[in-house]
Amino acid sequence: MGGVTNAEVARWAATQQLAIVLQATDGYFDLGGDLHGRPWRLECGPAARGYVRGLELRGRADMDADTDAAVMVLNRALLESLEGLAYEAITDTLQTTVNADLPEEIRWLAMYEEVSWPGLPASFRQHFAVVAEHAETAQRWVQAPLVSQLLDIAESEDVDQDRAQSPVLLMLVRGKVYLRMEHTRRTLAEVAYATHALLVAAQSAMQHVAPMPAQMSSEAPEPSVEGAAGQGAVHDAPPPGNDAPGQTRASSEAA
Which uninterrupted H or E stretch holds 73? Predict the structure, then answer.
C-alpha cells in the first residue's frame, strides 16, 4: 500500500522545527522534541497491538504529571472492541481477577468506569469515551483544547468511515502521556494530527495535572509494551532529539 513518504514527512518536520530520524523502510520514522524542557517522541512502525491494523503511530511525552493520575481517552469503536477482548479474556479462563498479562488499556476497562461531566460536549461523547479512576482527574486533563484536537479527525470533512472508526487512544499514567493511533490512510495529515494530539495532551497534563505537593517522586515501573521500529522504543527508551525545537508549536496548539 502506498502512502506518505519519508521525504514528505521530513519536509513537514522541518517546517515544524521537529527532529526526525528516518528508518530504512519508507513510512517508518521517529519524530522527537521537547515541550517546555520535557521530552516527547512519536514513532511510526508495525503495530504493537492486535487491535491496530498495519502501521501504528505511537508516542510518549514525559511530562512529570501526577503519577497517581489514571485516565484513558479512546474512540467509541475501539472501546467496543477492547470491551469484547476484556470480556473474552475473563470469561474464557473463568477468572475472577484481571489477567496482568493483558495490555494495560484492556485491564483498565475492567477496573475503571467511563466518566463524564457537565460541559463535556455531546459531540465529543458521541465519538469518544473517557475512562478514569477519578472523574475529577479526567476533567482536569480533558479540557477544551484536547477535546477540539480529538474532534478534528472525527468530524473533519475529509474523514471517511474507515478513518473515523480506526483506533485512537490517549492515556495519562505514571506522569506520562501515551498515544496510539492506527495509521489508516497513511497520509501526512494523520502524522500531523497524531503529533498535535500528543502535544496538546502533554501540554494539558503539565498545566492541569501537576503532582500533589506531598507526592513521592518515585514512579511505578514502566508498562511492558511490545516493540515497534526497534524494541519498545517509544515506551521503554528515552526519546531522541530532546533539544529540538517544537515548544512554540505545541504551545500555540494548546492555547
Answer: strand 70-75
